[in-house]
Write a structure and sequence with these properties.
alpha+beta, 2 domains, three-stranded antiparallel sheet, 3 strands, 31% strand, elongated
């Protein structure tokens, strides 16, 4: 019984090794991945604290713009009818398109 279990285990291991080598060779011959047009980043700007929402959003826009990001979209986040903050999405050209 032990010889049968050992032979089955060896067959499974050998087939897994052969399958792994086949997958490695498939990756080498596959087509190159296309570069995405845009890169996006979404940040949360909280409504809490000393500064008002407008000041925090302006600061967020300035920081993003200084890093090459452009404003794309903004959504309000509320809980039980109270404003908690904003989700702000910025986009920029993907770095692989800058070649």
């Amino acid at each position: 019984m032990n010889k049968l279990a050992l032979s089955v285990l060896l067959c499974v291991l050998i087939s897994n090794i052969a399958f792994a080598k086949k997958n490695d060779s498939d990756e080498a011959t596959s087509a190159p991945v296309k570069c995405p047009q845009l890169q996006a980043s979404t940040v949360f700007v909280s409504d809490k604290g000393q500064k008002g929402s407008a000041g925090k959003l302006t600061e967020s826009h300035k920081n993003a713009e200084s890093q090459g990001w452009n404003f794309d979209e903004m959504s309000l986040y509320t809980e039980n009818g109270d404003l908690k903050g904003f989700y702000v999405t910025y986009t920029r050209t993907h770095p692989c398109n800058n070649k």
